[in-house]
TrEMBL record:
Gene3D superfamilies: Dihydrodipicolinate Reductase, domain 2 (3.30.360.10), NAD(P)-binding Rossmann-like Domain (3.40.50.720). It comes from the Bacteria. It comes from Streptomyces phaeolivaceus. InterPro entries: Gfo/Idh/MocA-like_OxRdtase_N (IPR000683), Gfo/Idh/MocA_Oxidoreductase (IPR052515), GFO_IDH_MocA-like_dom (IPR055170), NAD(P)-bd_dom_sf (IPR036291). Pfam families: GFO_IDH_MocA, GFO_IDH_MocA_C3. One of its GO terms (molecular function) is nucleotide binding. Residues 1-26, 377-420 are annotated as: Disordered. Residues 167-287 form the GFO/IDH/MocA-like oxidoreductase domain. This is Gfo/Idh/MocA family oxidoreductase.
Length: 420
């Protein structure tokens, strides 16, 4: 349903829908990127709208439509922010407004269908994490991209990869200045109380796609992979120690990287002293990031090994102008990729890598096996469901006794470690 329609303030020279082939992105030269926000809740209103508004100030974007199933909310949102068109129907918005870019800020189970609809309408997509509930969903989305025609592409929101700190450390690691990375720790130890999980859709595979590995730790794991490159194998445990949830509420994993580096990964919602942390010990220095929901230069430290020259230490510690990690930092790069007609960061294989690690973490934890990168493909139960149908973890499966391949439900919320 079209909720509201106001004259657009811009002098919009973009082609009308009937001037374009069905899914061809419209040329962007000499004009703003016309963006639509789908889902105007916490992240849509709190992060995507401000990021798009910031780039609008720089002449790069304009928000031309918003979509939400809540008709009153979308009408109010459009009126408050001067957005010309509000809809409750995504398909109708895509057909009538024909945006260049769609920000998907809805719950994860909607991401696949909404991303595919937008790509088929010729719009690039910037989709919130977690990208989609399963690897099969991700592969289905990737198949809809215009990889042969310079777009449209679907990029996942992983804003922690962006900003001056991540860029500086990625460069130091890539050029080998710090020597080989040897040992890493990746920690998302957060706290969520009983009231948080009282909301019916939380802690359920069908609605959240996973527990803290999927919903909370994905950002730090994605950044770890972005810094260290491809992983090769994982061994994991998962537990349901406190909350009345189908998914895990804590997981631990050991990860080997192709480079040979070894890492520990902890994802928890049971940790009163909350922190997000990545630490990488290299031959010549330790690099550490300590923050909670976003980082700036001051959150990074570099500790040189004994014998390092003052000049090297100073260069490693020079992060340049402070650009905090943020949605706007990622959006700026995405819009540049759109204008260049290039695959954006955090799409395709680059956007899939943390989802694959999470699927492997779950498979390892629920089957008591070492899982290698690339082994979860079509035909593997963990390709189509993060719980992989594992007894004690898949919805509706009976609790089984502890042992290899088991995960035990803990509906009473008693303190019982579950591992496979
Ligand atoms: N990148 C980050 O740091 C970060 C932080 C928080 C949330 N998120 C992610 O953002 C997404 C949304 O989370 P949120 O906290 O904003 O949720 P939310 O519940 O606050 O907002 C979701 C919005 O989507 C709307 N909606 C639901 N079904 C819809 C449909 N079919 N069509 C259009 N709109 C629909 C809802 O009415 C609501 O307004 C999730 O995937 C979440 O994991 C990312």
């Amino acid at each position: 349903m079209l909720i509201t329609s106001m004259p657009t303030p811009s002098n919009d020279p973009s082609p009308t829908p009937d001037q374009l082939p069905n899914n061809a992105p419209a040329p962007l030269a000499g004009r703003r990127v016309r963006a639509a926000i789908i889902g105007i809740g916490a992240i849509g209103g709190g992060s995507h709208l401000p990021a798009l508004a910031r780039l609008a100030e720089e002449g790069e974007t304009e928000v031309v439509a918003a979509v939400d199933i809540d008709a009153d909310a979308v009408a109010k949102f459009c009126a408050e922010h001067g957005i010309p068109h509000g809809y409750t129907d995504l398909d109708r918005m895509l057909a009538e407004v024909r945006p260049d870019l769609v920000s998907i800020c809805t719950p994860p189970t909607l991401h696949r269908d909404q991303t595919v609809a937008a790509l088929r309408a010729g719009a690039w997509v910037w989709c919130e994490k977690p990208p989609v509930p399963t690897l099969a969903d991700f592969d289905a989305v990737e198949a809809e991209e215009g990889a042969e025609t310079g777009g449209p592409y679907a990029s996942i929101v992983f804003q922690h990869r962006f900003g001056s700190g991540a860029r500086h450390v990625r460069k130091l690691l890539a050029e080998g200045s710090l020597g080989r990375p040897l040992v890493a720790h990746c920690q998302t130890t957060w706290y969520r109380d009983t009231a948080y999980y009282a909301v019916p859709w939380r802690g359920r595979w069908a609605t959240e796609g996973g527990g803290p590995a999927m919903g909370h730790g994905i950002h730090q794991m994605d950044l770890l992979l972005d810094l260290l490159g491809p992983w090769s194998e994982v061994r994991a445990m998962a537990g349901r120690l406190v909350h009345d949830v189908e998914t895990e509420d804590v997981s631990t994993a050991l990860v080997r990287f192709e480079s040979g580096a070894l890492a520990t990964v902890v994802n928890s919602v049971l940790s009163p002293d909350e922190v997000s942390r990545i630490r990488v010990d290299c031959e010549r220095a330790t690099v550490e990031l300590t923050h909670l929901y976003g980082h700036s230069n001051a959150d990074w430290s570099v500790t040189p090994a004994p014998g390092t020259s003052d000049a090297d230490a100073a260069a490693w510690r020079d992060f340049g102008e402070d650009v905090p990690s943020s949605h706007v930092a990622q959006l700026r790069e995405l819009v540049a990729s759109m204008r260049a007609g290039e695959r954006p960061c955090s799409s395709g294989a680059d956007g899939r890598m943390s989802l694959e690690l999470i699927a492997a973490l779950y498979k390892s934890a629920f089957t008591d096996a070492t899982v290698r990168r690339g082994e979860i493909g079509p035909g593997d139960p963990f390709h189509t469901a993060m719980h992989g149908g594992a007894p004690g973890w898949a919805p509706g499966t009976a609790q089984v006794s502890a042992g290899a391949g088991s995960g035990a439900a803990n509906p009473a919320g008693t303190s019982e470690e579950i591992s496979a």
